[in-house]
Amino acid sequence: MRVANVVRQLREKGHLFTLVLPPWQGIWHWHNPKLKIFWKELFDIESLNKFVPVMEFNEFTKKKKNSELIIDSIFYLQHYQEGWSESKGFEIKYDIRPCIDANKYYRKSGAKWLGDFSGQILTFNELKCLSIQGQSSTLVDAIIELMKNKQTILIDRAETILHDNFGDVNYWKARISMEYSKKLKNIGDKFRKEKFPLGSEFICAHLRRGDFVWAHKEIIPSLSGAANKLKDLSNKLSLKNIFICTDANNEEVNKITSILNESGLIVDRFISQELSPAEVSIIDQWICAHSKYFIGTHHSTFSFRIHEDREILGHSSETTFNRFCGEKEKEGRECEQPAKWRILLD
Fold this sequence. Notes:
This protein is an alpha/beta fold. It has 2 domains: 2-176, Rossmann fold; 181-319, Rossmann fold (3-Layer(aba) Sandwich), CATH 3.40.50.11350. It is built from 11 helices and 14 strands. A hairpin with a 2-residue loop joins β7 and β8 (112-117). InterPro entries: GDP-Fuc_O-FucTrfase, OFUT2-like.
């Protein structure tokens, strides 16, 4: 969304760029580093185009098929090697600097640069490493000043910049444009209407496991702890249906399911052998967005995306911004609940 807002601001200033969407790949919990998913398989492209004009990466390369595909420039973003001084604080600034690690990913070939992008070797006229401290608008200024007359620019390491104003109107406009594909929403709707009373009378639990079990062990509940929390919620909300989305292994899933079943709770998951892990994850999010109550995992981007979906759909904060507590955390002050990032539309 940061880069989409860069393109938006460039267009508002008369620089009519189109955002090229790289395929999704290398997502850790897909357990398939070679899996490559185009945006149209997950999102509604027409909706994305309502915020800024977009095109898939393969469409971009097809447009260039009758001529050699050479991109004008790589803008490789990096932090300042010296960091930022405590006396001056965090300054908004940018400078062309010697590359810190870009040479690991791009190599010189004559007068050109070569780099592997989404499994395809691309050719670039130049490589510029930009040390930057700032937001999307800072990058906009840098592009206008330093990339004059460039028609094609690859922005690498865009995570280096911040959102201009996290949670502001343009943040939410970009997020709302990321509507899921009709196909995946229909599959999710069919599943929940078949499984749950009214299609919404259930608790959704996102249990992040995998690397979180050791990387964030202080905030991750045990399986029995998570089950106990769900049993408490079931009693409080008078809901017997639990939908679980998780990256847990089969043994872990069977364990928590067994504990919940013993208490008379009905546990469901969405499983598909035909769909990719990426498509299943979108369907999981869509199902959870419609639950009566959601509880997620602290620090999980997946849980955060569900918070946003539920905000867009109009659910209350009380049924949305909730998370499991770690074994050593006590509910209350020690187990801080997620920040309530409310939707802002004007």
